[in-house]
Amino acid sequence: MKKKFYLVHLILVWTFFLKASPTVTVQFIKTDQFGYQQSAQKIAVISNPITGYNNSTPFNPGSSYQVRDWTTDAIVYTSTITPWNAGATQTQSGDKAWWFDFSSVTAIGSYYIYDVTNNVGSYRFEINDCVYNTVLTQAVRMFYYARCGSPKSSTNATAAWADGTCHANTQQDLDCRLYNNTAVSTSKNLSGGWHDAGDYNKYVNFTWSTLTDLLLAYEENPLVWTDNYNIPESGNGVPDILDEIKYELDWLLKMQQPNGSVLSVVGGGAVSPPSADVAYRRYGPANTSAALTCAAMFALAAMQYTTAAQTAYSNQLNAAAVNAYTWAVANPSVTFNNTGLLAAGEQEIAAYDLAARKVCAAIYLYALTGNASYKTFVDANYANVHLLLWTFAYPFEGPEQDALLYYTKTPGATPAVKTAIINAYVASMSTNNADNLPAYTNKTDAYRAWLSNNNYTWNSNQTKSKQGNMFLSMNQYSLNAANANNYKNAASGFVHYFHGVNPNSKTYLSNMGSYGAENSVSQFYHAWFHDGSSLWDEVGVSTYGPAPGYIPGGPNPGYALDACCPGSCGNPTVNALCTTNVTPPMGQPIQKSYKDFNNDWPLNSWTVTEAGIYTNAAYVRLLSKYCTATTCSLTTGIKNNEQNGMGLIQTVYPQPAEDKVIVKFYTTENTIDLLLYDISGKQLYNKTEIISNGLVDIDLADLASGIYFLKVVSKNKTETRKIVKE
Predict the structure, then answer these.
(1) Which of 355, 357, 484, 661 would give a disulfide with 292, using CB separation of 3.0 to 4.6 Å?
(2) pTM of the model as a whole
(3) What backbone phi and psi angles, to 5 degrees, belong to 164?
(4) Tens-place pLDDT, residues 478-523
(5) Which domains, ranges and CATH numbers included, belong to the chain?
(6) How far apart are CA 265 and CA 462, in angstroms?
């Protein structure tokens, strides 16, 4: 009798497993890999690749699609799919596409989309109003990893990305010297701040967009920001985003000289990890653009640090903003072109940008101080900013447009000027620019996140976020109530694009398998996480892969090998690198001009995958509008629906797998047993493993494609997970 009961129980268990989740997961059914808020518009994109690197595996979708519960396989919703643009192939993506609208599904839970005819499904996703909160935390924590001159403790960074203090050696940031005069008399303490991008340089002018987005992200939705991001300042009673911003502001204050001028840049070094970098560091002299950048950012920041405990800091920023602006007015044309002298990437700005930046600085100073002289300058010069000159709002001038809109809500602003700014912005966003609201209402993009062809340049991911933020500004300033829902839905398309609704089915954040993204960025260009690093190169190949939450530059149809290729790169070994297969990103439709790679010169992967503080900042501002301050019933990003720390397994990735999977654990127990079964219940693998750094690899190379079940047994718990091998 006992044997019969055991057999029946085993059959029931495996029947449950067979029912739960799709038999085969395919990348042709594209959903937000993290999920959706309950009341959100929810549209999956189904693709058939016609041109591009993946067109050798066509997909013919069935007509009937379902939303199914990931755990029970219960059918929650069934409907048909709608062809995009009457079945045309989209040039930008090279795909035919269909849309599956399941917005009516609002119950909290874990789901997947199922193609009835083909018996295949999408990645798993959650429906939950807090679904993006954990994602936002990781995207903000990128700035913690980018901190210069601050150790990364194992408490805050885990053992995987812990590192000592960087750039504190001889003639580095504590003893930084002028680039063309290294005498001790030029030494300055310029420690702190964030590394700008894939290198360790720190540019004042490149904080312009970064700090605008982060400071406005806080001001526009202050309740969503918490004090528990696991950075050194967590728990101090200040939202961690303000603590992180202060780390950068403190460096900018060091860059300001007693006369109000601001030094331009600190550069040098690119070794992994950052603490191992001993190259001398140099700074560039003061210039007008750096002073105007700081005048604007200090003024905007002073209005965010508003508690009684922050009064002294706010006053310090206020005084610094006034002094920087005063110096810039008295010194209107001081420049420093650093290219080839100090740091990669020219930080000087053109004459128009300098004039526009002065208007923006005056706007924030007027909002901060109420001094009429700033308003007088704004009123006399606002019409020279492109939004008014061109009557054209577009994502490459986000900070300038943000400042003009900020003026419209400032008490005492001139009514006629306010009206002119609002009319120009509303007209361009609503009707006068096909790239804005008409792109959404006309369904211009099969992947629901339209940029025009010429806007896919280096760092297109920042441009994507900027476009989304432009839509949300319409609602932030209540500029077109009749279309408020359209603007929100249009912007959400850019969120979903980042999370996997794109031709590459790629979540454009690094190493997010532990937070719910089955196909996130595995490698990107960065000095710390460099090509060939045994510790940090690539997820699933190196020991740890790169830190989570970095956003790469994004699809770039302008990508090319270095001009020295194929035969003029200095020696045969380097010339041979020119033969490396870089298709993709080369020779692809625009949106497919991307791949995860981090090769250095002459493959120059930085034009596609280099991450930057400005890219993350624009995304953080966008995503924060879709987060909530409420407590949710499920912890998002944990795919077994268990509260963080309650289960054994944090995640199993990648899914679907090829030759191996990585199991990441919550448990601190040292020894566990791993058992692997096929769908018939036959045991294929039984091994005792020692958990090292919370990770265990399982070799699947000898297994056929299909579904398997991994059972993990520790001293106190047992847990089973499904594994899909392609």
Answers:
(1) 357
(2) 0.87
(3) -80, 180
(4) 999 999 999 999 999 999 999 999 999 999 999 999 899 999 999 9
(5) 642-726 (2.60.40.3080)
(6) 22
